[in-house]
Amino acid sequence: MQIQGFHDLNFEAVREAFADLFNDPQERGAALCIQIGGETVLDLWAGTADKDGEQPWHTDTIANLFSCTKPFTAVTALQLVEEGKLELDVPVARYWPEFAAAGKESITLRQLLSHRAGLPALRELMPAEALYEWQTMVDALTAETPWWTPGEGHGYAAITYGWLVGELIRRADGRSAGQSIMARTARPLGLDFHVGLGDEEFYRVAHVARSKGNMGDAAAQRLLKAMMNEPSSMSTRSFTNPPSIMTSTNKPEWRRMEQPAANGHGNARSLAGFYSGLLDGSLLEAEMLEQLTREHSVGEDKTLRTQTRFGLGCMLDQPTVPNATFGLGPKAFGHPGAGGSTGFADPDREVAFGFVTNTLGPNILMDPRAQKLVRVLAECL
Hints:
Helix content: 25-40%
CATH architecture: 3-Layer(aba) Sandwich
CATH class: Alpha Beta
Distance between the termini: 26 Å
Largest sheet: 7 strands, antiparallel
Number of domains: 1
């Protein structure tokens, strides 16, 4: 396998570990970028990007980053808090009056960002096309009753997070959520990151496909079993309502829509650059970065049915939980995306890390491929 890009020779072992991923015949394409103190020490890509395995992964190939998108959305919301356009601890209904319906009158932005609002799913079955209709989904969430008492415990809002936080951003900023997020995070840092992709960019988007035969870890198997046996449970509805959530990744409508929980498109460089921008103070003031990365939720996740730990829209490290550690320092923060893409920062070592793949693994938190790369990186530091 030909590995493209460059690396500092101190990180030769990381390059070798990246190349080793492609010894698995199922591995299609991937990219890896690591920045330390804002300097890029490694920027690699390899494999294939298209459905048929004929087009090479290029320097400008981008992919659906799934939930790696969430921290970009959270940072945008927190910038609006810094500007006085939103507040963390006042009711969401102050900005979005209809939201107060059905027992949601006291839910705050802080609760939405830390997955404590009780709104990870819709009970009423939505048609497949509703996924692409912003107002339809916002209206459905406006009418929804929380699944538990807001503020008491947490449950990951896999996709509803995008409409909930995104609608607040839209109301506070006057632009669509995707436009606001790109203007506030990607553009100032020069990142190749998009929420709502123009058709003219489709040619460089990697086709995403699942790997076969890998059942994943115990947490992944537990969630899969629940989804097969409990069709109306909160966990199942979180991922299957609308039913198009799990099947639309490669569709033009998915790429075009602005779903700031799940459909950001970018490359490993854009993930590493984003986290470098958080570490160097380009995106948030120190006080707000502390809010972003402070523990707000920890313990059994009502949606994922495994232990999770969150700040405000970012996942925090759990060093002793094998499926929930980024693999560097205990202060690491970031977010994995479904299937394996991962972005995070380790403030102690000033590391910003981005890994992007179009071969989806089955794990629901950290992907073993990314963790292995980080373990090798730790040995190089």
